[in-house]
Amino acid sequence: MGELASQKHVQFIVSVEKKKDSFESVVMEHIRMNGAYWGLTALDLLGKLHVVDVEEVVSWVLQCQDDSGGFGGNIGHDPHVLYTLSAVQVLALFDKLDVLDIEKVASYVAGLQNEDGSFSGDMWGEIDTRFSYIAISCLSLLHRLDKINVEKAVNYILSCKNHDGGFGCTPGAESHAGQIFCCVGALAITGSLHHIDKDLLGWWLCERQDNKTGGLNGRPEKLPDVCYSWWALSSLIMIDRVHWINKDKLIKFILDCQDIENGGISDRPDDAVDVYHTYFGVAGLSLLEYPGLKAIDPAYALPVDVVDRIILDR
């Protein structure tokens, strides 16, 4: 089994931020806030967050805030709950949540809850269980879960549960590992995991492991992808069924997706690397207790020490 090329990955993540005129940077311009969360959290898990200029990052994050209290994916972009959570997570990494008008941010997020308990992503009204998780995680980090109807939020998530034990983006939608993380994560944060049939869901999730490569996929008959080393694995950990997969084979799959010369991790071996898969590869290895990495919280998708610091603040 190979080794994690940690220093190369640090160099890759830092270089992405500096190449603002590159194709990758231009096409990611509208989701730069998410990219900042992926890259900075990966650096923290690798123990290298100190290479970043904290004040520069915090200043940029605040410039992405809209008058509504929500955050856009970049300066001048419309606010969305997706980018709002990433902004809160980035500030949490640096212990800088105190720079926020927390009531304003929390009111923006809480205002997106619908009568049935679901959440819209922004003012245009798209509904998805991703947004339920994002709202719950964000408000929990801000200590403002009391601003929403948690019971209705939980009931809506449970209405998206399928007969196979998984969850979809809306009631009746196909089970998907990414949506399962969102639903299980939201239920974990709200203390509602007892509503899940853990054996049924655990079986569906462990079947996502490809026997040949050891990688995990998001749905039946799909190719394995490094990002599911987070989405599926974190859910298995939260429902205490991670022992149902072959951890060593999954570690090997993630390590095989590295560019050991230039840094970065790809979706599958020999594909182009990117910050998204680099983060989820490192995060997956952290969940698998790979040596030298900080521990990550499977529900909040932040380093355990960051979550503990925020929780102990309560």
UniProtKB/TrEMBL annotation:
Its EC number is 2.5.1.60. Keywords: Metal-binding, Prenyltransferase, Repeat, Transferase, Zinc. It catalyses: geranylgeranyl diphosphate + L-cysteinyl-[protein] = S-geranylgeranyl-L-cysteinyl-[protein] + diphosphate. Gene3D superfamilies: 1.50.10.20. Binds 1 zinc ion per subunit. Belongs to the protein prenyltransferase subunit beta family. InterPro entries: PGGT1B-like (IPR045089), Prenyltrans (IPR001330), Ptb1 (IPR026873), Terpenoid_cyclase/PrenylTrfase (IPR008930). GO terms for biological process: endoplasmic reticulum to Golgi vesicle-mediated transport; gametophyte development; root development. One of its GO terms (molecular function) is Rab geranylgeranyltransferase activity. This is Geranylgeranyl transferase type-2 subunit beta. One of its GO terms (cellular component) is Rab-protein geranylgeranyltransferase complex. It is an enzyme of class 2 (transferase).
